[in-house]
UniProtKB/TrEMBL annotation:
Keyword Metal-binding: yes
Taxonomic lineage of the native organism: Bacteria, Bacillati, Actinomycetota, Actinomycetes, Kitasatosporales
Family: Belongs to the metallo-dependent hydrolases superfamily. Phosphotriesterase family.
Keyword Hydrolase tagged: yes
Gene3D superfamilies on file: Metal-dependent hydrolases
Protein name (record): Phosphotriesterase
Organism expressing this protein natively: Streptomyces pharetrae CZA14
Pfam families membership: PTE
Keyword list, A-Z: Hydrolase, Metal-binding
SUPFAM superfamilies per record: Metallo-dependent hydrolases (SSF51556)
Residue numbers carrying N6-carboxylysine: 131
InterPro entries registered for this protein in UniProt: Metal_Hydrolase, Phosphotriesterase
Length: 303
């Protein structure tokens, strides 16, 4: 039976509740100096605020080597009552310093499988998805190597593969590579940041291919496209793809947390949900938030 692998163990898809399908409790990167998500108490407060707004689950897309703090996640989940899903995988090479990936490139798939089935380091916390990343309208050698390892790890475990699309671009190239060349079923692929490139043709083609489409934000850097989100989702729903859609907050900096004055995780339910309900109706939005994530992140995990 398919289950979602959370940091407290595997749960049935219907147990997730309302889900923030793409966010971060902890995150560090040389590209975000001074903006790291490291504070455990702030992470706990953010999760509690999300829970108070009606949230039931958060999927953390923070991959290997970017400050996941996997050992803290079970305690945060227990204390707040929010399901948390952790990630393995790799981001773009620019998010790592010169030594962070030393000796790793030749055993990526091995590491991903171990983190999915045995646990992340000494924490024992098992990841529930593989996060990888493309570039702006391109897939460089690092992306191809990482995606090849992700495909191998998927075939070994059934884990879903979540993809950072740079500025929302390259979705079809990613599907050609992961699904066409390496045989990952399209319904096991989650394409992230599609709101950052509101191209209805590319969105529809990705949905027709069978992938899940994740729309996340708001974002200070990408605010120019935030206002197009309701129309993009309505178009896809009207075309029959409401069951392929996911929503997330993608909080990547300390200042963006609601507990520090930013929109944070609760914004997804406090502001985004009612705006989408006005555009699409409450029923489709409820399914996007509470039903689709269970299917997208569930797998028949090896015992």
């Amino acid at each position: 039976m398919s289950r979602v692998r959370t940091v407290l163990g595997d749960v049935l898809p219907g147990e997730l509740g309302v889900c923030d399908a793409h966010d971060h409790l902890f995150l560090t990167s040389p590209r975000l100096p001074g903006q790291e998500l490291r504070d455990v108490s702030a992470a706990r407060a953010e999760l509690a605020a999300f829970r108070a707004a009606g949230g039931g689950a958060v999927v953390q897309w923070t991959p290997y080597g970017m400050g996941r703090r996997a050992g803290e996640l079970p305690r945060l989940s227990r204390r707040t009552g929010v399901h948390v899903v952790a990630a393995t995988g790799l981001h773009q090479a620019a998010h790592y310093d010169g030594t962070a990936l030393a000796g790793l490139r030749d055993r990526l798939a091995e590491v991903f499988v171990a983190e999915l089935t045995e646990g992340i380091g000494a924490s024992g916390v098992r990841a529930g998805l593989i996060k990888v990343a493309g570039g702006f309208h391109a897939l460089d050698a690092h992306a191809r190597r990482t995606m090849a390892a992700a495909a191998e790890a998927h075939h070994a475990t059934g884990a879903p593969v979540a993809v950072h699309l740079e500025l929302g671009t390259g979705a079809l190239d990613v599907l050609d590579l992961l699904c066409g060349e390496w045989g990952v079923p399209p319904h096991r692929v989650i394409l992230g940041h599609l709101n950052r490139s509101p191209d209805p043709v590319a969105h529809r083609q990705a949905a027709e291919a069978g992938a899940y489409l994740a729309f996340d934000g708001p974002s200070r850097a990408h605010h120019a496209t935030d206002w197009r989100l309701p129309d993009a989702l309505r178009r896809l729903a009207e075309a029959g793809f409401a069951d392929r859609l996911l929503l997330g907050g993608d909080t990547t900096t300390s200042a963006a947390r609601s507990v520090h004055g930013g929109p944070g995780m609760p914004y997804l339910l406090r502001r985004v949900r009612p705006r989408l309900e006005a555009e699409m109706g409450a029923g489709p939005v409820a399914r996007i938030l509470a039903e689709n994530p269970g299917r997208a992140f569930a797998a028949d995990w090896p015992r």
